[in-house]
Amino acid sequence: MSAVMVDVRGVHKSFGPQKVLRGVDLQVRAGEVTVVLGPSGSGKSTLLRAINHLEKVNRGSISIDGELIGYRRSGDKLYELREKDVLRQRTHIGFVFQNFHLFPHLTALDNIIEAPLSALRLPRKEAVARAERLLERVGLADKAGSYPRQLSGGQQQRVAIARALALEPKVLLFDEPTSALDPELVGEVLEVIKGLARSGTTMVVVTHEIGFAREVADTVVFIDGGVIVEQGPPAAVLDSPRHERTRAFLSKVL
Ligand code: ADP
Ligand code: MG
């Protein structure tokens, strides 16, 4: 078995009085794909944001490749990292959002080279060569000079995936990457994500695409009310869920 790449332990997160994550434990092994399912408001985005330390957790810890995210441990105490150290950690964690979040004033190529230039201080020539390879990989070699507004939603999302890959992250997090797309554009984005899965990219994908989960996931996690209700191989969770809440959810989305 490969090493644990993402290790979420006992994570609790509240917004004011509202408990959004109530003790989440999740391990993702290197090279594996975990698909997270769950109803709206169940805490899926908060969990992804916590992994990236875009949200601070109230209790518990998150490590990527053995490195504690957002904190350093000294004895049995945790100290919050400085912003620049958090930013360095984030370069190891790619994030793909529902609404693409591309820079509108930059071309596809410039969107992709921005972080390698600023965060990795890669020479421009190398960053451009890397971006061109990535555009090729997501099937957009001919769109390097296009601005986001000149691209379809599916193309924009594929640029966003290339951008997330440009820092060669240890793990890629997807938050409903196809939810904002017209139905006919969903497939092209899922195909790109499937390709990444085949090449051994470690991924956590929040999605309602059950067919994709069945085909690509090593583990399917069902989250409801801020707790993982059940998890396991897709066939187990999707075809013979053990919990009523999972059954009820699946009956609505299938
Ligand atoms: P999901 O992605 O599963 O739909 P979220 O993680 O986005 O769920 O949200 C879970 C709950 O946390 C929701 O009730 C949402 O309103 C609340 N929430 C999320 N982010 C914040 C925030 N920054 N401030 C206050 N409440 C939030
Ligand atoms: Mg969400």
Question: How would you portray this structure in words?
Answer:
It contains nine helices and twelve strands. The strands form three sheets. Strands 8-9-10-3-11-12 form a six-stranded mixed sheet, with helices on both faces. It has a four-stranded antiparallel sheet with strand order 2-1-4-5, with helices on one face. By secondary structure, the chain is α/β, with parallel strands linked by helices. The radius of gyration is 18 Å and the shape is globular. It binds adenosine-5'-diphosphate (ADP) and magnesium ion.
Strand and helix map with partners:
Elements: E1 4-15, E2 18-29, E3 33-37, H1 44-51, E4 59-64, E5 67-68, E6 71-74, E7 77-80, H2 83-90, E8 93-96, H3 108-118, H4 124-137, H5 153-165, E9 171-175, H6 183-198, E10 203-206, H7 210-216, E11 219-224, E12 227-232, H8 234-239, H9 244-253
Parallel strand pairs: 3-10, 3-11, 8-9, 9-10
Antiparallel strand pairs: 1-2, 1-4, 4-5, 6-7, 11-12
Helix pairs in contact: 3-4, 3-5, 4-5, 5-6
The chain binds adenosine-5'-diphosphate (ADP) and magnesium ion.
Radius of gyration: 18 Å
Strand order within the widest sheet? 8-9-10-3-11-12
How is the main sheet built? Answer: 6 strands, mixed
> What ligands can be seen in this structure?
adenosine-5'-diphosphate, magnesium ion
Tags for this entry?
9 helices; 254 residues; alpha/beta; binds magnesium ion; 37% helix; four-stranded antiparallel β-sheet; binds adenosine-5'-diphosphate; single chain; globular
